[in-house]
Write a structure and sequence with these properties.
Distance between the termini: 74 Å
Structural class: alpha+beta
Largest sheet: 8 strands, mixed
Oligomer: single chain
Number of helices: 12
Protein name: Phenylalanine--tRNA ligase alpha subunit
Keywords: Aminoacyl-tRNA synthetase, ATP-binding, Cytoplasm, Ligase, Magnesium, Metal-binding, Nucleotide-binding, Protein biosynthesis
Order of helices and strands: HHHHHEEHHEHEEHEEEEHEHH
Bound molecules: phenylalanine
Helix content: 40-55%
EC number: 6.1.1.20
Organism: Sagittula salina
Catalytic activity: tRNA(Phe) + L-phenylalanine + ATP = L-phenylalanyl-tRNA(Phe) + AMP + diphosphate + H(+)
Radius of gyration: 42 Å
């Protein structure tokens, strides 16, 4: 019995087989257990010899089972270590991390600067009705500004009676939506995408503007000038940038001004914030009473300024980028060249 089991145990090649052997030998109905039960039928003399011998055999078999089990586990582990190795000294594959698009970075910078002056962010839809984009801003149907803005109109099937929609041509409709909802006083900026059918070195059909709107009881153009000079000085990181206000015309502001920032051209190098040159950067003015009225704000009680600035344009100036279209070409080489991607 001893020889038979020790041999079988030694030859077992997996844990399951060992368990079967255990049951066969020392399990409740195992061969050795049955033999132990027969001890009762023996004479005392016989029992004195056979009892200890059977016990010793049982212990020996159990020990052999345990030892074999440990050996099998060892072998399995060694096998895994041999096949599942990993060279932790190998260099990693180069991994490129995505980066924030320069226009988004600039938008965040702009938002942070205006936030310090108490402006919060307002938003509006990029597809809006022509009422918000034009009529409410005092641009009636026949007004030449509609044509000038190269508007993208949404197609309507014949018989579709819904209000005409356009891709907003500027962020000014957000003025109306914000005042309609929140009334006066208010102090917001509205950055976002705008659309015009135009394409050349400085125009893309989709571009970005940031609208500014401050309404209170006695806000004036002087406040506007201070806010803008504060903004440009912070944005271009140059103290005391001067602005020049040129009389202009927008249907939604009266008076209106186009605003230039100070610059110089030396050896074909553009420098912002010095010299006696001027660069146009935005349109602005005092919000027209009709616009306040359209948004449900009483023009006898409230007044304020609004401005609209091209985000792409001031980004080009800040980073010295000559062609606006490159911003939206998704060319990684270009993004890396300007340090916008890794
Ligand atoms: N909406 C004008 C534009 O797109 C800019 C502007 C905004 C002018 C607000 C005056 C006041 O050209």
């Amino acid at each position: 019995l001893r020889g038979k089991y020790l041999e079988l145990i030694a030859g077992a090649s997996e844990e399951g087989a060992l368990e079967d052997l255990r049951v066969q030998a020392v399990g409740k109905k195992g061969e050795i257990s049955l033999k132990m039960r027969e001890l009762g039928k023996m004479s005392p003399e016989e029992r004195q010899v056979a009892g200890p011998a059977l016990n010793a055999l049982k212990d020996e078999i159990n020990a052999a089972l345990a030892a074999k089990k440990a050996a099998l586990a060892d072998a399995a582990l060694n096998e895994r270590l041999k096949t599942e190795w990993l060279d932790v000294t190998l260099p990693t594959r180069p991994m490129r991390q995505g980066t924030i698009h320069p226009i988004s970075q600039v938008t965040e910078e702009i938002t942070a600067i205006f936030a310090e002056m108490g402006f919060t962010v307002a938003e509006g839809p990029q597809i809006d009705t022509d009422w918000y984009n034009f009529d409410a801003l005092n641009i009636p149907g026949h007004h030449p500004a509609r044509a000038e803005m190269d508007t993208f109109y949404m197609h309507r099937a014949e018989g579709d009676e819904r209000a005409p929609h356009v891709l907003r041509t500027h962020t000014s409709p957000v003025q109306i939506r914000h005042m309609e909802k929140n009334g006066a006083p208010c102090r917001v900026i509205a950055p976002g995408r705008v659309y015009r059918a135009d394409y050349d070195q400085t125009h893309t059909p989709m571009f970005h503007q940031v609208e500014g709107l401050a309404i209170d009881r006695d806000i004036s153009m002087a406040n506007l000038k201070w806010v803008l000079e504060e903004f440009f000085s912070a944005f271009f990181e140059i103290d005391g940038i001067k602005t020049r206000f040129r009389a202009s015309h927008f249907p939604f502001t009266e008076p209106s001004a186009e605003v230039d920032i100070q610059c110089s051209w030396e050896d074909g190098q553009l420098k912002i914030g010095e010299g006696d040159g001027w660069l146009e950067v935005l349109g602005s003015g005092m919000v027209h009473p009709k616009v306040l009225q359209a948004a449900g704000v009483n023009p006898d009680e409230w007044q304020g300024f609004a401005f609209g600035m091209g985000i792409d344009r001031i980004s080009m100036l800040k980073y010295g980028i000559p062609d606006l279209r490159a911003f939206f070409d998704s060319d990684l080489r270009w993004l890396r060249h300007y340090g916008f991607a890794s």
